[in-house]
Amino acid sequence: MPSPPNPVAFTIPGLNHPVYWYGLMVTLGTLAGAFIADREARRRGHNPDHVWNALIVIMLFGLLGARLYHVISSPAGSASNLQSYLDDPIRIINFWSGGGLRGLGIFGAIGGGVLGLWLYVKWAKLHFAEWTDIIVVGLPFGQAIGRWGNYFNQELYGGPTHLPWGMPIDTVNRLPEYVGLSAETRFHPTFLYESLWNLLVFFALIYIAHHWDDHRIVGDLALTYLILYPLGRLLVEYQRPDAWTVGGVAVAQLVSLALMLAAALAILIRHGYHRSFGASSDAAPA
Fold it and tell me: How many CB atoms lie within 10 A of CB 163?
């Protein structure tokens, strides 16, 4: 994998303000995911304007959730680091310092985004579960694009590797344990692994959305995402030497397991109830 270019994509003329690749990739991913959700809303016969209107609220709460998750969990779950944020609260919202967007956690973004969507659908008097299914179809595709922002920032990488797709990391961006390694050392592109997994999740959700109408209950697509994405994150975390750990286990893995189990249990309960309800209804006299 070639060396990442300058994290600055360009500078706004006259303002001398840099625009970073990370922000561009996150923005591109967000718009791409929203476009797919727009198509899904049209396919289901709903007004796609709700996708774009809800996007504003989802992005706001998603950004807040992503930042709060990072503040609580980084780096390496250090209590002293959390205290440093509490001692200087302005650092909590100053997540663009140091060059581009940094310090955002995806699980916090998902949680905040769900809250934002819930608030919007309550206001617009829509069906929450159905709109989670619509929005979630484009989510992993947007994540797959957005993860490339980590490439330009030279972050979210794993341990040293001799594999042909290993990526170089400048000394200034290396974790302390890797600073002494030679300049030619290559590292696992962990961001790439997660990006590719997100693409697989996207294709799986699209297939289910278009071919399993007779087997789905409203809300099933969102629950399926909460099984498939955390499964990939669970595996990817093994290539995260900077992971926040508790008792030697990455917290993201614990969160992933909890989400997977909760979503799988919800699907089993909902479908069991659905079948039982359907059977009793069929057996009832006219």
Answer: 10
Tokens 């390694």 label which residue? 181
Cβ pair 103, 113 in contact under 8 A: no
Distance, in Å, from the CA atom of 226 to the CA atom of 231, rounded to the nearest integer, reads: 9
Per-residue pLDDT for the chain (286 aa), expressed as one digit of tens each?
A: 788 888 888 888 888 888 889 889 999 999 999 999 999 999 999 999 999 999 999 999 998 888 888 777 655 444 445 666 666 666 666 655 555 555 678 889 999 999 999 999 999 999 999 999 999 999 999 999 999 999 999 989 999 999 999 999 999 999 999 999 999 999 999 999 999 999 999 999 999 999 987 788 999 999 999 999 999 999 999 999 988 788 888 888 999 999 999 999 999 998 886 665 554 444 434 3
Closest CA relative to residue 242, chosen from 230, 251, 234: 251
Q: Is the dihedral of CA 151, 154, 157, 163 positive or negative?
A: positive
What is the signed CA dihedral for 173, 175, 180, 185, rounded to 10 degrees?
-70
> What's the chain's Rg over C-alpha atoms?
21
In whole angstroms, give the CA distance from residue 26 to residue 101. 9
CA 157 to mean position of chain CA atoms: 16
Q: What angle do CA 219, 105, 64 make, to 5 degrees?
A: 80
